[in-house]
């Protein structure tokens, strides 16, 4: 099957929000071996989309120029080869290996598709794959979380931290701490399950955490802030603590005064991670973990996917503006007509 479709494109290949536009002359993809062509119902926004739009994201070789990595939709066509148990007409959601979810159609390896339970809406399903697979990887595979650990998640009202709060609670965390930029976001995170949240504009969260834990600190930190928090992460980390660096929103070049003595003395492990550049086998294992452990909890309501706002995909500029404002608490979803 070939032809054209609509997709969100970027004028000149990169630029500000105003460069986003609907391109009705985009080539429609065709499934290769072990792939499915999916007609998209909804897709989720992620902060990497903003960075990629600006030309600031290291896109993996397999990625197309179209933004977006998570989606829900219906299988319209299957390639040859092993397509597991999927068939035409199946309602699915999944992670687009490389990207291209801001479109009417995409092709995906069937190894990254998940059968959508009837209990989940299209919008909820579209907000799960990237966020929850990233959170699962950061907490369990990279962060090596163990029941009883104390954890700290920065940017607490972000979609990944919202998932992390719930995953840590379900896995038996002791203290679950978050930082956020407003009292409203702190309250939101505490209602979701965080033990204590800190407004980083007002609170000395390093001191408060050390006081609350009798000097122990936190065993696992998941950080997307970077430069501004690196030294504080060393200070608040417990002995043999693990720091997982997913992004560096405050900057990636550290100040010259960064003191790594704590890194040595506490035997800390500071590890960077990026899901999108992982190979298909690795991502498939994470998908299987999500299906086995988290999917039933989405169905029964134990795990939630808070959605800030749903947009028509024609309003993609407004959706990006909302994400750039840093005012959202939860997923921003676009629906494809």
From TrEMBL:
Protein name: Probable NADPH quinone oxidoreductase homolog PIG3
NCBIfam families the record matches: quinone_pig3
Domain Enoyl reductase (ER) residue range list: 15-334
InterPro entries from the UniProt entry: ADH-like_C (IPR013149), ADH-like_N (IPR013154), ER (IPR020843), GroES-like_sf (IPR011032), NAD(P)-bd_dom_sf (IPR036291), Quinone_OxRdtase_PIG3 (IPR014189)
Keywords: NADP, Oxidoreductase
GO molecular function: NADPH binding; oxidoreductase activity, acting on NAD(P)H
Taxonomy, superkingdom: Eukaryota
PANTHER family noted in UniProt: QUINONE OXIDOREDUCTASE PIG3, QUINONE OXIDOREDUCTASE PIG3-RELATED
């Amino acid at each position: 099957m070939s032809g054209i479709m609509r997709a969100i494109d970027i004028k000149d290949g990169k630029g500000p929000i105003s460069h986003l536009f609907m391109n009705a002359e985009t080539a429609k993809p065709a499934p290769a071996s072990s792939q499915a062509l999916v007609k998209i119902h909804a897709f989720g926004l992620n902060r990497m989309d903003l960075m990629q739009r600006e030309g600031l994201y290291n896109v993996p070789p397999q990625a197309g120029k179209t933004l977006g990595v998570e989606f829900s939709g219906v299988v319209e066509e299957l390639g040859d080869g092993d397509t597991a148990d999927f068939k035409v007409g199946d309602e699915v959601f999944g992670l687009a290996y490389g990207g291209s979810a801001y479109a009417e159609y995409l092709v995906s390896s069937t190894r990254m598709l998940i059968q959508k339970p009837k209990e989940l809406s299209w919008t909820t399903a579209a907000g799960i794959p990237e966020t929850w697979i990233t959170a699962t990887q950061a907490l369990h595979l990279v962060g090596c979380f163990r029941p009883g650990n104390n954890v700290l998640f920065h940017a607490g009202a972000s979609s990944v931290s919202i998932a992390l709060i719930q995953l840590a609670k379900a896995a038996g965390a002791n203290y679950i701490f978050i930082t956020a930029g407003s009292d409203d976001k702190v309250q939101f995170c505490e209602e979701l399950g965080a033990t204590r949240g800190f407004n980083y504009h007002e609170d000395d969260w390093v001191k408060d955490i050390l006081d609350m834990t009798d000097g122990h600190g936190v065993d696992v930190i998941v950080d997307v802030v970077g430069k501004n928090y690196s030294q504080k992460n060393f200070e608040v980390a417990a002995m043999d603590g693990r720091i997982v660096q997913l992004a560096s929103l405050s900057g990636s070049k550290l100040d010259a005064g960064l003191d790594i003595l704590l890194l040595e003395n506490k035997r800390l492990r500071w590890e960077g991670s990026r899901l999108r550049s992982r190979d298909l086998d690795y991502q498939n294992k994470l998908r299987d973990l999500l299906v086995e452990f988290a999917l039933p909890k989405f169905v029964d309501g134990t795990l939630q996917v808070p959605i800030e706002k749903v947009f028509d995909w024609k309003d993609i500029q407004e959706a990006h503006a909302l994400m750039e404002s840093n005012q959202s608490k939860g997923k921003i979803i676009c629906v494809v007509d």
